Amino acid sequence: MFSFDIVGHSTESQARAGVIKTSHGDIETPIFMPVGTLGSVKAVSAEELFEAGAQVILGNTYHLYLRPGCEIIGRFNGLHRFMHWSKPILTDSGGFQVFSLANLARISDEGVTFQSHIDGSKHLLSPEKVIDIQACLDSDIMMCLDQCIQYPATREQCRAALAMTTEWAKRCKRAYQDSGNGHNALFGIVQGGMFVDLRRQSAEELMDIEFNGYAIGGLSVGEPVELMLEVADSTLPELPKAKPRYVMGIGTPENIIELVARGADMFDCVLPTRNARNGQMFTQTGTVNISNSRYKDDTDPLETDCRCYTCRNYSRAYLRHLFMARELLAYRLNTIHNIFYFINFIKQMRTAIVADKFETFRRKFYGKREL
Ligand SMILES: [Zn+2]
Asked: How many Å apart are CA 74 and CA 222, to the nearest integer?
């Protein structure tokens, strides 16, 4: 019950438009996936996400496994019913969080042992267990356990992490096949640090194992944007054209448009939600700090032509007041706009790709930012 079809492409770049079919509905690519780490996209309900046009959201294996745990989510037959979201869900494998959040993560052939960041309890995440947990969450798109590497890292460190990532990918694939979870998809994650030849090797090794789609992990970890684009630029063409390509943890609207131009289809990032809670709003002309005193008596909506719930109903002065007063409604209204902005931005980009007007769209996008 998983498929990917390309329905349009740009003749001036590698940008393409597609449709991913899952058992919880279709996903039109390119797509932005709001991040719902703990089974909630912070500050908004599933209904509000739906109204903002979200087609797929991200859940986090590491966090949900630790809290509330599979036993509870299993009683709801998965995350969809637990959080009242009936559309597709992608779950990451937890690899990234183990390395960034958990204490004393130790890697062995078996998997990663770590101490919970919540209560210090000891756990092992193995490739098999990661598949088990994601099956219990009934994730539509599961991710393989991978070994993330910090930036900067030596060639030897990157090579070792790549070798482990390939081994774990093989075991994830086997566990996935054994679980008989035919209706869910499994994606492999390309690693290799900032070394272009290692990225190519990782992509080839994963393609030999064969996955439903391929992700590029370990980008946007502190490297300069030019380097991120260079690595993506040389990795994306190595991945099969007929499968979805997901660049993990990215990013700004500028990075998204540049990666779509290079053939990427899927994105996730905490930027719209996290920045909304800090009062930073995304608009067509660039980012806006709602706390700025120039908005204190501004009766206009945040963006006059934005069709989001927030802009249809509230003024800049009100949003500024809520934010300055630390009213809880500020987080909700700001998040609704930012999510809508990202989803709508990429939706318009998709329409341009289908009409083969991607380059015009890209020029206009940058033109508005320079105003
Ligand atoms: Zn809006």
From this structure: 37
Residue 90 backbone phi and psi in degrees, to 5? -110, 135
332 C-alpha to center of ligand 1: Å? 12
Which residues are CB-contacts of 13 (< 8 A; sequence separation ≥ 6)? Answer: 261, 262, 358, 359
How far is residue 154 CA from its own chain's centroid?
26
* Mean pLDDT of the region 310-330: 98
Please say whether the beta carbons of 248 and 216 come within 8 A: yes
Q: How far is the CA of 185 from the centre of ligand 1 (A)?
A: 33
**How many angstroms separate the CA atoms of 259 and 229, rounded?**
7
Q: What is the pLDDT of residues 35-75, one digit of tens each?
A: 999 999 999 999 999 999 999 999 999 999 999 999 999 99
Q: 330 C-alpha vs ligand 1 centroid, how far in Å?
A: 13
Whole-angstrom distance, CA of residue 30 vs CA of residue 348: 10
